[in-house]
Amino acid sequence: MDYELLRLDLEKTISEELYKLFRGDVIQRVLREGKVESSQEHLRMMLEGHAFRITERMAPRLFQLCHEVQRALRFEEPVEFFVRSTPELNCAAYSRVEEDQSHIVMINSGLLERFDDDEMRFVIGHELGHLISHNSELTRIVEFVFPEGTEVPLIFQNRLALWEKLAELSADRYGYIASPNLDKCICAFFKLASGLDTVRINFDAAAYLDEMERVVEFFREKGSVQGSHPVNPLRIKALQIFARSRLYARVAAGEALEPDQEMAAQLDEVQQILLQSGLSPLDEQRKRFLAAGGLIVAGADSELSMDELERILAPLAAVSSFPRKYLESVVASGQVGDVFNESVAAILEANPSERYPMFSYLIDVALADRSIQDPAVELIFELGEQVFGFPRKEVAQMLGNAIQHSFIPRFAG
Fold first, then answer.
1. Beta strand pairing status for 91-94 and 103-108?
2. Residue range 145-154, pLDDT digits in tens
3. 209 with 186: CB under 8 angstroms?
4. What is the Cα gyration radius of the chain?
5. Helix, strand, coil: what percent of the chain each, to 5?
6. pLDDT tens-digit profile of 106-130?
7. DSSP assignment of 259-327, as one string?
8. Which residues contact 101 (CB under 8 A, 6 or more apart)?
9. Could you give phi then psi for residue 108, rounded to 5 degrees?
10. Exposure letters 316-336 (e unless 16+ CB within 10 A, then b)
11. What angle do CA 8, 9, 11 make, to 5 degrees?
12. Where would I find the H helices in 333-386?
């Protein structure tokens, strides 16, 4: 049975996009052949010196539990499990670089102290899920391109954040297969969210589920939130759907896996909440302005260059996980002018001072193709005077300032 088929379709699609975009094949080759001092070797040195490796002799029960999870997931690649002394409720998986190495799963001691065996099976299964899906591998590639302390370019931030959330939902499915007790999985989520042991309170899984349904309604209206993990109510909702699906029934029966369209339709609601960026009504108008205003200015010379397109997509990526698709939807609406006028009016009514950064953005788009064409210049003057209410002289000053500080002519010879 190919357990790799358990992954969410959208997560798989974005993973493949990112792997190709980041040239994962090349980076993996560089990491293998460079062999200076890989991050995994650095991690292993730290763990060997400051953590506890789970062995059959030293911790037979915990060793057995970890390997029961491996067998349940039919994951035969070598994995070493370590316990690190920290109260933080967390666990992490690190994929190997070389075939002769082992993957590493690092368990914080806080988890072992508060989670029972079934809850630990869920957590360990979740981490092994990241290895089975190769998402730990992709994480290493992304962190190699954008190491700690490096700011991830805006155009990638939303897409990476969405992928990380979807990867967590996929990994939760592996956790459930390792510990097919929904109440125990829900209890694990509760402990992760609250930091509490259920001994201290009268925990009721059914009551907690009802509360999570209420919270899901809240996020359905407000959209998703920042962070690498989906909020727990969405994770629980997605896991409920999987637990009741025909796909999981086939897993439990040991049958060949097939696409489950009914489950996919139910899960779409959760994914739509993740796709929402939690924008305020005014932020939605800003998104509309970025798309429509950029298209209008870029189209002044009757063609949209790659430089202009990138200049539009970059700020759109800050407010949309799929900026190109959003831009295409505005074009397809056939109402670019109306979208522009409506968004400008709404923004300026709420915050008139935004006319300066809005107009600066339009000038940047006009100069993005590194040529100063008469139609674009005339359009900038027209928009500046008629839409934003600037005196013509001030428009000329702002345009001149932008040319002086950011315009680099394209060398044609």
1. antiparallel
2. 888 888 777 6
3. yes
4. 26
5. 70, 5, 25
6. 999 999 999 999 999 999 999 999 9
7. --HHHHHHHHHHHHHHHS----HHHHHHHHHHHHHHHHHHGGGT---HHHHHHHHHHHTTT-SSHHHHH
8. 40, 78
9. -75, 145
10. bbbbbbbbeebbeebeeeeeb
11. 65
12. 336-350, 355-367, 374-382
- Alpha carbons 131 and 3: distance in angstroms, whole number: 12
User: Residue 30: what residue type?
Assistant: V
DSSP tag of 222: H
Q: Which amino acid appears at position 158 of this protein?
A: N
**What local confidence, expressed as pLDDT, does residue 221 receive?**
60
First to last CA, the chain: 60
* Tokens coding 260: 């489950």
What is the domain partition of the chain in residue ranges? 3-9+37-275, 281-406
Rounded distance between C-alpha atoms, residue 12 and residue 31, angstroms: 23
- C-alpha 29/C-alpha 31 separation (Å) is 5
